[in-house]
Automatic annotation (TrEMBL):
It is found in: Cell membrane. This is Cytochrome C oxidase subunit IV. It comes from the Archaea. Keywords: Cell membrane, Membrane, Transmembrane, Transmembrane helix. It is a multi-pass membrane protein. One of its GO terms (cellular component) is plasma membrane. The chain crosses the membrane at residues 7-25, 31-53, 65-85.
Amino acid sequence: MANLRTYTLIYILLVALATGKFVFFEFNFAYATAIGGTILLAITKILLIAGYYQHLIEEPRAISYMMATAVFMVFLLVIAAGYSIQ
């Protein structure tokens, strides 16, 4: 299990990434760049939260692969729902 220093560093990184999202939209970046940057920041935040706060870093790789497969399946369902709405 990670120590308090690791959790504090992860928390500071999460705050910095959340601030980065604000920066993309406030400092006249192109809209496509702001959306792409925001998505990359969100993915990074998701990986940090899942890895450290949900302790997936310490789990066997099979569980991580199962979680990745579940996320991919949800992504496919969202894509399918998007096509059915159009």
